[in-house]
Design a protein that fits this description.
Blueprint (H helix, E strand, L loop, with lengths): L3 E4 L5 E3 L7 H4 L3 H19 L5 E5 L2 E3 L1 H7 L3 E5 L3 E3 L11 H11 L1 H10 L3 E2 H7 L4 E3 L4 H13 L3 H14 L8 H12 L2 H11 L10
Parallel strand pairs: 1-3, 2-4, 3-5, 4-6, 5-8
Antiparallel strand pairs: 6-7
Helix pairs in contact: 2-3, 4-5, 8-9
Length: 214
């Protein structure tokens, strides 16, 4: 496995948001809210900490927790009709540091504030302007574009791609938490690999390299 594409089922939404009717049972008390938050953290963390590149293919609504899931992926590509929102301020919901940090890391503080202050829905074009998504495609072209996009990533040297994902993740951490030793070891592993030899040979021979991740 070299790249993962994440998308919603049914074609109408990436994630349409939490079921507000269940808040009374799932988030009515501190204990229930803690359980809910722990489950959400595990779900987001599974994508954010996944060692391979992840692409969120977004078609339709990407609301509330759907935004959190999309932010946990490395790249976001959406259809022209997609809608984005975090309606927390309409429900008096508080967002914790970790969730806000992911959004700020992607769109910056000003756009993050706009998303939360207004709690309104944003178009795909607005999302691209904010840097929330990398590309916007006509609906009919979305799947083929994402497939080609993923194939391009998968065709590159896995050690190089994986090292960049890890190092960028470390850059986004507080300095005291960064694992610079592992980051440097991953860089050196690229230069010591058979793929480094293959890449040079393929370039000189004017052919497509066949990388193995070793």
């Amino acid at each position: 496995m070299r790249v993962v594409v994440v998308t919603g089922a049914g074609g109408k939404a990436f994630v349409s948001g939490a079921d507000i009717s269940k808040f009374e049972s799932e988030r009515a008390s501190k204990e229930a809210s803690d359980r809910y938050n722990t489950a959400v953290d595990h779900a987001y963390g599974a994508f954010y900490e996944f060692p391979k590149p992840t692409i969120a293919m977004i078609r339709g609504y990407c609301i509330g927790g759907g935004m959190g899931l999309a932010m946990s992926c490395d790249l976001r590509i959406c259809s022209e009709g997609s809608k984005f929102a975090v309606p927390a301020a309409k429900l008096s919901i508080g967002y914790r540091y970790a969730g806000l940090k992911k959004l700020v890391d992607v769109v910056g503080p000003s756009f993050a504030k706009e998303i939360f202050y207004t709690a309104r829905q944003f178009t795909a074009q607005e999302a691209q302007t904010m840097g929330l998504v990398n590309r916007v495609l006509p609906d009919a072209e979305l799947e083929s574009y994402v497939k080609n996009y993923a194939d391009t990533i998968a065709g590159n040297a896995p050690l190089s791609v994986d090292s960049v994902k890890f190092i960028v993740g470390e850059i986004m951490k507080d300095p005291a938490e960064r694992d610079l030793a592992t980051a440097e070891a991953m860089v050196q592993a690229c230069f010591a690999s058979n793929d480094f030899i293959e890449g040079r040979r393929a370039f000189m021979e004017k052919r497509k390299p066949q990388f193995t991740g070793k």
